[in-house]
Write a structure and sequence with these properties.
The chain is α/β, with parallel strands linked by helices. It has a domain of 263 residues: Aminopeptidase, CATH 3.40.630. Helix content is 37%, strand content 16%. Strand 5 and strand 6 form a beta hairpin. The longest helix is centred in the C-terminal third of the chain and has 22 residues. It holds the Pfam family Peptidase_M14. Keywords: Carboxypeptidase, Hydrolase, Metal-binding, Metalloprotease, Protease, Signal, Zinc.
Length: 391
């Protein structure tokens, strides 16, 4: 990214060295503003943004959720509360923990009847990384599909009759709200949670202090090994210990709670970007679970289902196999889930492709198409859980 005042000199330098280049985004600030508010097609005006947000908040009655726009976390939580009231026999709002900034980590239990505790479970989350806005809104879309189509769609009705679903749309509400607070790139591209500053000495005798922990490096799976990131200023800082963060503990405590432990057959964590369907393990090359062939089979069926809608191409594999240049990753959520016995544990990296550097900024009008195709893949996993249990 180049500042406007330095653009001419930068182009001259590239031309002098005979580098091939193209301009991917001509105005990053405007591009980010349009992600918040697609109506804004002119230069960003902070006062106009504030007025638009206020008008939307006043006009909204919180009764329905607009899946074609990005919303603040409070609106997501209010919508889930509303859905619980609309469907009390199917939905239960869950408070799973409290963040560093005192926000409630909220999710939903969905099933028919919702109070049943003897059924197998599918777990889904989004928003583990702050900047990955589409993942949260897709998880909300899945909640909407399950609740609004029960009793109307035979497949959905069967799902809720035979299974329980636990869905956490936004694991990292602090980080999400911080990433929404400004169009400045370092803010919008924030990945971690908002943990207080950690300090760590470097090999050169300097002390580095920065906020935040990468929640997807904070689970107790090969945490702190050779590939664990100890620099608190890194985007992938692993934290001070496994489950040092309230957000990762919220997931752990839910999955190991008496009503849930040992009953979860699918764990799906949504991320952006890259069009990747990721299975375990990711801490070491060519290291797989004993049931890897079954994981690949179901994963490929899910990819085929997603591709059937719009032709979107996904790759299947472990993250270390698909993204080898980044090295192994330890402390991952889906790997930890697999290690505690959850059969179908996957991470789904949503569109667009990995080669698009600005792909975290998905335009709002693409949210529903992405949700529709991803839901097809998730339903393949749900069907696999039913088949696994002969349901």
């Amino acid at each position: 990214m180049v500042a406007p005042e330095g653009l001419a000199a930068f182009k001259n330098a590239l031309d002098k060295e005979q580098f091939f280049y193209w301009v991917a985004i001509h105005n990053v600030e405007q591009h980010m503003a349009e992600e918040h508010y697609p109506e804004l097609k002119t230069t960003v005006d902070d006062e106009n943004l504030v007025k638009l947000r206020m008008r939307r908040d006043i006009e909204s009655n919180f009764e329905d959720y607009d899946f074609t726009m990005y919303s603040e976390y409070a609106r997501m939580a209010r919508w889930m509360w509303t859905m619980q009231r609309r469907y009390p026999h199917l939905a239960k709002l869950l408070h799973l923990g409290t963040t560093h900034q005192e926000r409630s980590i909220q999710g939903m239990k969905i099933g028919s009847p919702v109070n049943a505790t003897n059924k197998r479970i599918v777990y889904i989350d989004g928003g583990m990384h702050a900047r990955e806005w589409p993942s949260m809104h897709l998880a909300l879309y899945f909640i909407n599909e399950l609740l609004t189509k029960y009793g109307k769609d035979p497949q959905i009705t069967n799902y809720l009759d035979k299974l329980n679903f636990y869905i956490i749309p936004c694991v990292n509400p602090d980080g999400y709200e911080f990433s929404r607070s400004s169009e400045v790139r370092l803010t919008r591209m924030w990945r971690k949670n908002m943990a207080p500053k950690n300090c760590n000495g470097s090999a050169y005798g300097t002390v580095r202090c920065c906020e935040g922990v990468d929640l997807n490096r904070n689970f107790d799976f090969h945490w702190g090994g050779r590939w664990g990131e100890r620099n608190p200023c890194s985007d992938v800082f692993q934290g001070s210990s496994p489950f040092s963060e309230p957000e990762s503990r919220a997931i752990r405590d839910l999955l190991l709670s008496p009503d849930v432990k040992g009953k979860v057959d699918a764990f799906v964590t949504l991320h952006t970007h890259g069009q990747l369907f990721i299975h375990s393990y990711n801490h070491k090359r060519k290291t797989y679970p004993d049931d890897i062939e079954d994981l690949k089979r179901v994963g490929q069926q899910a990819i085929d289902a997603m591709e059937s809608l719009q032709g979107t191409k996904y790759q299947l594999g472990s993250a270390i196999d698909l993204l080898g240049k980044f090295g192994p990753s330890t402390g991952g959520a889906s790997d930890w889930a697999k290690s505690i016995g959850i059969k179908y544990s996957y991470g789904i990296e949503l569109p667009p492709e990995q080669t698009t550097w600005f792909a975290f900024i998905m335009k709002p009008h693409l949210l529903i198409p992405a949700a529709e195709e991803t839901w097809l893949g998730v339903k393949v996993i749900i069907d696999a859980v039913l088949a696994l249990n002969h349901l």
